[in-house]
C-alpha cells in the first residue's frame, strides 16, 4: 500500500519560513521523481518543485530562489524549505511521487501566510 504523508504546514507571517516534509512508504523511493504541488482556493493545482532520485531539481519561477526541495533517500522523505513567504503562497501543498508514468498523491497540508 502506497502512502505519501505530508506534515509541517501551518500559519506563518509574511517573510517567514516553513519546512514541509513528505514521508513515503510502499514505493521504491530512490527511483521516484518526487514533487510538491499547491492549490490555492479557486485556482488550479500547480507545480512548485520537483527532484529526481539523483537530486536534480526544478522549480516554478514564482518560488525560485525562495524555496528549496531536497530528499533523503535513506529516510524515504522529501522536504520543501520555504523562505520569504508571501501571502500568495497560501495554498494546500501536496506531495507527489512518480516512477515516470502515473503516480501517487499525498492528502495535502495547508500553508497559510498571513499577518
Provide key terms for this protein.
mainly beta; seven-stranded mixed sheet; globular; four-stranded antiparallel sheet; 115 residues
Largest sheet: 7 strands, mixed
Structural class: mainly beta
Order of helices and strands: EEEEEEEEEEE
Mean pLDDT: 97
Fold topology:
Elements: E1 3-7, E2 10-12, E3 18-25, E4 33-39, E5 46-51, E6 57-59, E7 67-72, E8 77-82, E9 91-98, E10 104-105, E11 109-113
Parallel strand pairs: 2-11
Antiparallel strand pairs: 1-3, 3-8, 4-5, 4-9, 5-6, 7-8, 9-10, 9-11
Would you kindly provide a written description of the structure presented here, covering whatever features stand out?
The chain has 115 residues and is mainly beta. It has strands at residues 3-7, 10-12, 18-25, 33-39, 46-51, 57-59, 67-72, 77-82, 91-98, 104-105, 109-113. The chain contains no helices and eleven strands. Helices cover 0% and strands 51% of the residues. It starts with a strand and ends with a strand. The strands form two sheets. Strands 2, 4, 5, 6, 9, 10 and 11 form a seven-stranded mixed beta sheet that branches. The protein has a four-stranded antiparallel beta sheet with strand order 1-3-8-7, with no helix packed on it.
Amino acid at each position: 500500500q502506497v502512502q505519501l504523508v505530508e506534515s509541517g504546514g501551518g500559519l506563518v507571517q509574511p517573510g517567514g519560513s516553513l519546512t514541509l516534509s513528505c514521508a513515503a512508504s510502499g514505493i521504491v523511493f530512490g527511483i521516484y521523481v518526487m514533487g510538491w504541488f499547491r492549490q490555492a482556493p479557486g485556482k488550479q493545482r500547480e507545480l512548485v518543485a520537483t527532484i529526481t532520485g539523483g537530486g536534480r531539481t526544478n522549480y516554478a519561477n514564482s518560488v525560485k530562489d525562495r524555496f528549496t526541495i531536497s530528499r533523503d533517500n535513506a529516510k524515504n522523505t522529501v522536504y520543501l524549505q520555504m523562505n520569504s513567504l508571501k501571502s500568495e503562497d497560501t495554498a494546500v501543498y501536496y506531495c507527489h511521487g512518480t516512477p515516470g508514468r502515473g503516480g501517487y498523491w499525498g492528502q495535502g497540508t495547508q500553508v497559510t501566510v498571513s499577518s
